[in-house]
Design goal:
Blueprint (H helix, E strand, L loop, with lengths): L4 E2 L23 H16 L4 E7 L12 E3 L2 H8 L1 H9 L4 E4 L3 E2 L2 E2 L4 H11 L4 E4 L7 H7 L22 H18 L17 H14 L1 E5 L12 E6 L24 H9 L3 E6 L9 E2 L5 E2 L7 E6 L10 E5 L3 E3 L11 E8 L5 E17 L2 E8 L13 E7 L5 E8 L12 E7 L4 H9 L3 E7 L17 H11 L3 E6 L14 E4 L9 H7 L35 E3 L8 H7 L16 E12 L2 E10 L5 E9 L13 E10 L4 E9 L5 E3 L4 E3 L4 E9 L2 E9 L2
Parallel strand pairs: 1-2, 2-4, 3-5, 3-25, 4-7, 9-10, 9-22, 22-23, 23-24
Antiparallel strand pairs: 5-6, 8-24, 11-21, 12-16, 13-14, 13-16, 15-21, 16-20, 17-18, 17-19, 17-20, 17-21, 26-27, 27-30, 28-29, 28-33, 31-32, 33-34
C-alpha cells in the first residue's frame, strides 16, 4: 500500500473486558500480550517497516480517555501495564512507541517524564516516542518530557524552539531518535515502491487470513459432540441471525479494515454443507444496529398531537428554567432540535407510544450524548456515547433495549437527553436518533428451527474506538432469540461474533458455542470450515469470560461528566483479569486459556529444567488421543511467590506453546519460563526482586485446569 510505518501492534491490557478498543489488542495477561506483540513487531520489522508499539501508559477504557486520571501503583505499572510494551521493544525490536491518552497519577502519559524515562532506563531502548492524536494538553511539556514527534496532530508551537522553551540539545535528541528508527528498521535503505490504491489482497494473503480466523476460533461448548456438523448428508440446517451481508467483520474506528470481497456466513454454510443438505435462512434478529426511526404516527404528545412534547433546559441535568417547549414529530436530530439552545443543554420528551404488534418490541438510541428512556415507568435504555460512530467503519454505536407491548395499547414513554455523556464529549455536536423494531422476527426463526435438524444462530455486538460496552449482555433481542430457538430445537449451535466476553443465560439449553471474534474477510469461510470440521477450533481464550457483570473492576471514571478531571483507581493493583477472580475465589463462566478441540489430548512427563541465564524450561509430552488432527495450547503457570513482603497472584501465566498433532501422534515440547515470572517489582528499591525458595509450577490447558508439575527456585 506504500507505507513504511505502522501504528501497531497494540498491546494494551484488557482490564475490564468492556473497552471499545479491546479487539485491537491481545489479552488481559501481560506475558501473553507481550510475546504476541513481539512476534507481530518482528514480522513487521522484517519487511523494513517502522513498528510503533502502543499505547504506553495504562489505556484501558474509552470513557473520558483524553481527560481521565488513572491512579495506579508503580508495581502494577511495571508488572502489568508497561510490561507488554517493554517486551515488544526488547524482544520484537520495535523502533517506535506511542504514548497514551490518560493521565497517569496526575500527569498526562505523553507529558509524564518519569513514565517515559523508565522504559529507556530499564531496557536501554533508543527508539522514538510519538504522541497519540492530540494526547495531553501541553505539547511543549510533552516534547521536553520525551515525546520526539507529535506528527499525528500537526500544529506544534514552533516558536518554542527559539524562545528557549525547548533546548537545542533536546531537539537534537529527538531528531536523532527519529533518524535512528528510520535506519534501524530498514525503511531508509529500502525506499518505497509505487503505492497502490487498489486491493493488495493476494490469494496467499486471503488463504492466510482464513487460517488465522480458523486458528483463532474458540470452541466453548460441544455437548454430545454436536460439532462438527456432518457434510454431504440429507439434513435441514436453519441459519438464523445476522449471517448475510450484515455480518460484522471488524472493529470500528482507526483500526477498521475494509474486508473487500466477503463470502457471507450463510453462503459459506450453504456451500460447505454439501450435497443433500438444505440450508434455510431466517433473520431472527437485526443484531446490534440502530433501528428505524419511530414515526410520528406511533407517538402522541400530551395534547393529542402527533409526536412528543419536548421541554428544553439550559443545563446538562434538566435543571433551571426551561428555555422552551415544543412538540417534535420524532426524536431524530443531529444538531440542535430547536432554536435558541445554549452549547450545553438537556431535554425531556413525554407522551405515549402505540405499538403496532403484540410481543417483544425493540428500542434503540443512536446518540452523541447521554440518554435515558422509560416505558410505562420502566427504564429500558440508559447510557451514553461520545460518538454515533468513530470516523471509520460501517456501523453505529447504538444503545439497545426491549419491552413487551400489546398492539394498539398506548404506553407512556419518557426520553431524557443531555449533551454531556458519561462516555465523554463528542466532537460532532449533539445527536439522537430514537428507533424501534415494532414487530419481532423471533417467531419466524422459531418456525425455521422447529423444521430443521440443526439450528445455527449468529449473534453479534458492535464495538470500536470512542465507546465502551455498557455490560457483558448481548444487545437487543439476541438473548431472547437464542432462548426461543433452543427451546424449539435441541440441536442449537450459537456463533458469537462479538468483541469479547458476553453473558450466556441460555448456555445450558444449547448444544455448542463458538466464539469467532471478528474474523474479517473470513467471517463466512473460516466459521463454516470450523462448523463442518474442515478446520479444528484451535483458539484459546486470551481473556476471562465472566459469569456476571459484577465480575469486573469499575471501568469508568468517578466523574459524572467529562468536563471535570475524574479519577479511576486501579484498586485491584496487580490482580487483573483471572488473577483477581482467583484471589477472590470467584468462578468465571469460562476461564482464561480455555478452549475445546474436536479431538482429545493428554499431557504428561513433566520435566522442569533449572534456570540457565534468565529462563528455566518445562518439558511436556503431549499425546493426541483422538481420531483426528487437532491443536492444543499447553500453558505453564507459576503459583504465589515464596516469602514476599507483598501479595502475589495464586496463578500467573509463565509460558505457553501451541502444538498441532495428527491422530495418535505424540510430541515433547519445551516451554521457556522467564525469570521475571518468579519476580516482583519492589517499589522501595525500584528493582525486580526474585525471592529465595521454591515456587510451584503448574501445567494445564487453562488457568482453572492445571496439574502440579513441580517447583522452581530462581532466587
Amino acid at each position: 500500500k506504500g507505507f513504511n510505518g505502522m501504528l501497531a501492534p497494540t498491546v494494551d491490557i484488557i482490564r475490564s473486558g468492556l473497552s471499545g478498543r479491546q479487539t485491537e489488542t491481545f489479552s488481559e495477561d501481560p506475558l501473553l500480550s507481550g510475546t504476541m506483540g513481539a512476534q507481530v513487531a518482528a514480522g513487521m520489522k522484517g519487511q523494513n517497516v517502522v513498528t510503533t508499539v502502543k499505547h504506553y501508559g495504562p489505556y484501558n477504557q474509552e470513557t473520558n480517555r483524553d481527560q481521565i486520571n488513572v491512579k495506579v501503583s508503580d508495581r502494577a505499572l511495571h508488572e502489568i501495564y508497561n510490561a507488554p510494551a517493554q517486551a515488544v521493544v526488547t524482544q520484537g525490536g520495535a523502533d517506535a512507541l506511542m504514548c497514551s491518552y490518560p493521565k497517569v497519577n496526575g500527569t498526562y502519559a505523553c507529558q509524564n517524564q518519569a513514565l517515559l524515562a523508565a522504559l529507556r532506563s530499564e531496557t536501554g531502548w533508543q527508539g522514538l516516542v510519538m504522541s497519540d492524536y492530540a494526547a495531553g494538553d501541553d505539547r511543549v511539556a510533552g516534547f521536553n518530557a520525551g515525546v520526539d514527534t507529535t506528527a499525528l496532530w500537526p500544529g506544534f508551537p514552533t516558536d518554542a524552539f527559539t524562545s528557549g522553551a525547548i533546548t537545542a540539545t533536546r531537539l537534537d535528541e529527538a531528531a536523532s531518535r527519529i533518524l535512528r528508527a528510520m535506519f534501524a528498521s530498514g525503511a531508509f535503505d529500502h525506499p518505497l515502491g509505487t503505492a497502490t490504491s487498489g486491493s493488495v489482497s493476494t490469494t496467499a494473503n486471503q488463504t492466510l487470513a482464513t487460517q488465522v480466523a480458523e486458528d483463532s476460533t474458540v470452541l466453548l461448548k460441544n455437548s454430545g459432540q454436536m460439532l462438527p456438523l456432518r457434510k454431504n448428508v440429507t439434513q435441514r440446517v436453519a441459519v438464523i441471525g445476522p449471517s448475510g451481508t450484515d455480518a460484522i467483520t471488524g472493529v470500528n474506528g482507526s483500526s477498521y479494515v475494509d474486508p473487500g470481497t466477503v463470502v457471507t456466513p450463510l453462503k459459506a454454510i450453504t456451500t460447505t454443507a454439501g450435497t443433500g443438505a438444505t440450508v434455510v435462512a431466517s433473520q431472527g434478529t437485526l443484531g446490534d444496529i440502530g433501528l428505524a426511526t419511530i414515526p410520528a404516527t406511533a407517538l402522541r404528545a400530551p395534547d393529542g398531537t402527533s409526536g412528543l412534547l419536548g421541554t428544553f433546559y439550559p443545563s446538562a441535568d434538566l435543571t433551571g428554567t426551561a428555555v422552551t417547549t415544543a412538540v417534535t414529530s420524532t426524536v431524530d436530530f443531529a444538531g440542535a432540535p430547536v432554536s435558541g439552545l445554549p452549547s450545553t443543554w438537556s431535554a425531556r420528551w413525554t407522551g405515549t407510544l402505540t405499538p403496532t404488534a403484540t410481543g417483544l418490541v425493540r428500542l434503540s438510541a443512536v446518540t452523541s450524548g447521554a440518554v435515558k428512556i422509560w416505558v410505562n415507568g420502566t427504564l429500558v435504555i440508559s447510557g451514553g456515547r461520545s460518538f454515533t460512530n468513530f470516523l471509520y467503519g460501517p456501523g453505529t454505536y447504538p444503545l439497545q433495549g426491549v419491552t413487551r407491548l400489546t398492539a394498539g395499547t398506548p404506553v407512556n414513554i419518557v426520553v431524557e437527553y443531555s449533551t454531556q455523556s458519561p462516555q465523554g464529549t463528542g466532537y460532532f455536536g449533539p445527536e439522537l436518533h430514537l428507533g424501534w423494531q415494532p414487530t419481532s422476527m423471533i417467531a419466524d426463526a422459531v418456525t425455521a428451527a422447529k423444521n430443521a435438524d440443526v439450528a445455527v444462530v449468529y449473534v453479534n455486538q458492535r464495538t470500536g474506538e470512542g465507546m465502551d460496552r455498557d455490560s457483558y449482555d448481548l444487545p437487543g433481542d439476541q438473548n431472547q432469540l437464542i432462548d426461543a430457538v433452543a427451546s424449539a430445537n435441541p440441536n442449537t449451535v450459537v456463533v458469537l461474533n462479538t468483541p469479547g466476553a458476553v453473558l450466556m443465560p441460555w448456555l445450558s439449553k444449547v448444544k455448542a458455542v463458538l466464539q469467532v471474534w471478528y474474523p474479517g474477510m473470513a467471517v463466512g469461510t473460516a466459521t463454516a470450515a470450523v462448523l463442518f470440521g474442515d478446520a479444528d477450533p484451535a483458539g484459546r481464550l486470551p481473556v476471562t469470560f465472566p459469569a456476571s457483570n459484577a465480575q469486573r473492576p469499575t471501568a469508568t471514571s468517578t466523574s459524572a461528566y467529562p468536563g471535570t478531571s475524574g479519577t479511576v483507581s486501579y484498586d485491584e493493583d496487580v490482580f487483573v483479569g483471572y488473577r483477581r477472580l482467583l484471589q477472590q475465589g470467584q468462578t468465571p463462566l469460562f476461564p482464561f486459556g480455555y478452549g475445546l478441540s474436536y479431538t482429545t489430548f493428554t499431557q504428561d512427563t513433566f520435566v522442569l529444567g533449572p534456570f540457565v541465564g534468565d529462563a528455566a524450561s518445562a518439558q511436556v509430552t503431549v499425546h493426541n488421543t483422538g481420531t483426528r488432527a487437532g491443536s492444543q495450547v499447553v500453558q505453564v503457570y507459576v503459583g504465589a511467590l515464596p516469602t514476599t513482603s507483598v501479595s502475589t497472584p495464586n496463578r500467573q501465566l509463565a509460558g505457553y506453546s501451541k502444538v498441532t498433532l495428527n491422530a495418535g501422534e505424540s510430541r515433547t515440547i519445551s516451554i521457556p519460563i522467564p525469570r521475571r515470572m518468579l519476580s516482583y517489582w519492589d517499589t522501595s528499591t525500584q528493582t525486580w526482586v526474585t525471592p529465595k525458595g521454591a515456587t510451584s509450577v503448574y501445567i494445564g490447558t487453562s488457568v482453572a485446569t492445571t496439574s502440579f508439575a513441580g517447583t522452581l527456585s530462581a532466587g
